[in-house]
Amino acid sequence: MAKLTFLGAARTTTGSKHLLSWQGDKLTRRLLVDCGMFQGIKELRLRNWDPFPVNPEIIDAVILTHGHLDHCGYLARLVKMGFDGPIYGTPATLDLAELILRDSAHIQEEDAKHAKKFAYSKHENPQPLYTEADVEKVIPLFQPLDYNKSYPLLENLTVRLHHSGHILGSAFIEATVEEDGKPIRVVFSGDVGRYNQPILQDPEPPTGADYFLLEGTYGNRTHDTADPLTEIANAVNRTVERGGTVVIPAFAVGRSQQLLHYLAQLLDTGRIPSINIYLDSPMAVSVTQKTGKYKEELDLQTLLGVQQEKIFKRSEIHLLSKREESMKLNDEPGPSIIISASGMATAGRILHHLKRKLPSEKNTVLLVGYQGEGTRGRTLLEGATEVKIHGQLIPVKAEIVNMSSLSAHADYTEMLPWLKRMVPPAKTFLVHGETENLEAFKERLEAELGWAIEIPTLGQEIEITPIDPAARTPIKVTPVPRPAVAPKPTPTAEALVVVALDKEITLPGGLTSSRIFQGPLDDALIERILTQTTARDVMVLGNGDGVDSSQLSKLVEGGRSVWTLGRV
After folding, report:
1. CA atoms lying within 13 Å on the CB side of residue 181
2. pLDDT of 522-539, one tens digit each?
């Protein structure tokens, strides 16, 4: 009997771990989807030290939805306890997971040394959860998977990964297991991204599912509709007038790059003065430098900005990796902006900056994302007059500014249109959210979609059975034919899909793209364009070798206008 066991992110936003088990020909097989660390309040953090509820040696494989710490940060501990199977993910996810694991181990080792030196731990000899040496045993287990390809990973198991638009490399996972010749399709949403955000392309339409594990981080809230550029500009300009520093706790993956993107826009348009911007996080620096490597995942504006060195490589932006460079910021004389990890101010270099900047009224702390229960970020958000850092109580006199518009998670209003394109699953399990948010999300989904919803508890095990085949059929976008005599409109930024036949992309200024596909322009790619987007216009870039009129006509017959640059 196939089963789902919820080992993390159950009525909390952290520690994502979901175990899918099923019967093979002779043995029970087990796939662990995500392997994240618990973060936040002490009760949650202590769970990282508990014995793992399943013997790691009997888990066949791990697959990651993305590379955030709460989805991959427990891998080194799992391997340390005996897991030695393959660890799957997109190439970008595995690339980022390696950075995050190394950074996490380094921070833990440094924090343990610091706690011992200043005697603020109750343990006589505090230890890290895992070390950098432990991480070295994880990396050889990584095996990359591409998007939109079916992989038979284990006996009676096939998986397929789809873009989720959350961070670089993020995916929602479609896993199909067979028992007694009958398939059971389980979809793990991971963290679902937002539409029309900088850096990444939009999430793909979802596939059909028998059983659906869906995140509910923002199940009871909507994002602020304020313009993030205006909010950032106002905070920076107020602080500059006071002669202070803007300190921004930011996730190293995704959020830091998004902030640099916005700040570059503000500098280019003169909405903020020329000011030193420091990205003070070795991992964030590495991710920033790697961003241009994964061209197919970037929106066109970002891709062109990276290629033209207008976003990350400019005189105002300083990328700091070395500890000595970070320490020199203590002597920074004038107004500046410091972006540092972690995003919820739970660990890392950001703590040293907060320790120095919080006691002064001239400074600003800009909170730019979700602040989990029990984190220092949440404490500051709730108006605390002092916070504990490295065992010391630090007075809070700096201005605290919260921006909810920069979350990388879709809220429930953004999630509903995405979900409405699915055949209703037999059962949907809401995970990765605090209880209040999940319960509100459950009520909305039941009322608006009529879905069967359950909110699992930590450690709960649920049997899953095959469903009628009709319920497993994914919805496809049906192209709407255009009249043959309809005039060809000028392509617009919000309605444009780009097909790049060459590795390098150059496009006239002012155009952006909802999706970028990279050639060759064959039947498989045409099918992806027709089923995964609703954009009206397709622009084909490149020399056009091997592209014939019949291939282009399929796009036209599918309701698209085709634009070409090059000898197509």
Report:
1. 0
2. 777 777 777 667 677 777
* Residue 512, CA distances (Å) to 516, 541, 548 in order: 10, 14, 26
Helices (H), 358-499: 376-381, 412-419, 435-449
Extract the tokens encoding 371. 């602040």
Q: Give backbone dihedrals phi and psi of 492, rounded to 5 degrees, phi first.
A: -110, 155
Rounded distance between C-alpha atoms, residue 210 and residue 435, angstroms: 24
Which two structure tokens, joined as six digits, stand for 393? 């109580």
- What is the layout of strands, in order, in the sheet containing 245-249? 317-320, 276-280, 336-340, 245-249, 364-367, 399-402
Bridge-based pairing state of the strands 496-500 and 537-541? parallel
| Ordered DSSP codes for 355-375 | HHHTT-TT-EEEE-S---TTS
Architecture of domain 2-221+408-472: 4-Layer Sandwich (3.60)
Backbone angles phi, psi at 178, to 5 degrees: -120, 135
**The model's pTM:** 0.77
Q: How far apart are CA 218 and CA 220, in angstroms?
A: 6
Contact between 389 and 357 (Cβ < 8 Å): no
Pairing label, strands 561-565, 537-541: parallel
Phi-psi region of 308 (alpha: psi -120 to 50; beta: other; left: phi over 0): alpha
* pLDDT, tens digit, 9 for 90 and up, residues 107-124: 899 888 878 777 777 777
Q: Are 408 and 369 in contact (CB under 8 A)?
A: yes
∠ CA 169-173-179, rounded to 5° = 155
Query: How far, in Å, CA of 32 to CA of 15, rounded?
Result: 13
When pLDDT is cut at 50, 70 and 90, the band that residue 308 belongs to is low
Domain 228-406 has CATH 3.40.50.10890: yes
Q: Phi/psi at 426 (nearest 5 deg)?
A: -65, -35
Can you tell me the distance from the alpha carbon of 257 to that of 243, in angstroms, rounded to the nearest whole number? 25
* Assigned token pair, 64: 């990651």
Q: Are 534 and 514 spatial neighbours (Cβ–Cβ below 8 Å)?
A: no
Is the CB of residue 38 less than 8 Å from the CB of residue 489?
no
Distance (Å, whole) CA 107 – CA 100? 10
Q: Are 497 and 533 in contact (CB under 8 A)?
A: yes
**Which residues make beta-bridge pairs with 399?**
364
Provide the 3-class DSSP secondary structure of residue 165.
coil
Q: Are 249 and 340 in contact (CB under 8 A)?
A: yes
